[in-house]
Fold this protein.
Amino acid sequence: MTETSVDGAVFSRHSGHEQVVFCQDEQSGLKAIIGIYSTALGPALGGTRFYPYASEADAIADVLALSKGMAYKNALAGLDHGGGKAVIIGDPDRDKTEALLRAYGRFVESLNGRYITACDVGTYVQDMDVVARECRFVTGRSPEHGGAGDSSILTAFGVFQGMRAAAEWLWGSPTLRGRRVGIAGVGKVGHHLVEHLLEDGAEVVITDINEQAIDRVRTRHPQVDVVTDTDALVRADIDVYAPCALGGALDDDTVPALTAKIVCGAANNQLAHAGIEKMLEDRGILYAPDYVVNSGGVIQVADEIHGFDFERAKKKVAGIYDTTLRIFRLAADEGVPPAVAADRLAERRMAEVGRLRGIYLPGQA
């Protein structure tokens, strides 16, 4: 097996990725990596993360994991898109400039539609408007520029649908009424999830490293409880744990300490490594696969490509409820954890639909 090493990061040429592109513009300070995992279902679609990685190796690891996750997410969301992701290395509060974003846009444009970008951690709709000044392959733009705007609204709605499905499967009713839900991270998506849960009659307890994020929630909803950190939340007496910050939330230390019976949150790549899904299963904790329940945002930005209609997109996102239940049923039938069942469904769709691209159509190369 051939491997390539970049700044200490080793990744296999047989990891499954179609393409990994390193982008650098010294004058603007741009250092970015674009990962395209698969285009079997169509052009790769996924957001751009702007984050101060400690090393290029960490950035590579993140973009590889995130782009693969997007392929599976888009497949199970029923979209005609493959999976891609990009990371910009730097502090968005310090390093983000118009010149840097436009330079990044030109690199995305150079891929000629193989990758379509959107917002992610550290990037916003206004940033996509700037990127779009140099690039046609951008979604997640502001309404003023013909876009759908903030995708976190439908992302939170989708997570809530996944949580309802988990409650139905475990407790026999699709509601969180009377249940205590712990949310780690009440930023872009988490604070919208708080709204859905309170409207449904749940009790909510939160934590976040950003005091302003906590203050925003507490100002509007003083009944929401706050704990000091994620470790305290994991050990708190809760029915549902919702990781809504960065990945790797479920690891060898977290899973044994969890009191919750359901894990369902908005964060990407929640399982720190292979085998965590089995640990959750062995402890009797129902895991709603992250890339299934958090796909509301990508459903929205995919809808925008064809002319955004909020109600149409919301109806598609509501389908996350049925998809999540389908995964739980398959997991039970095949005797595997839900994460494994979700992967199987996604891989099956990529293989079956991707195969059709081998059928010749007149006028196509």
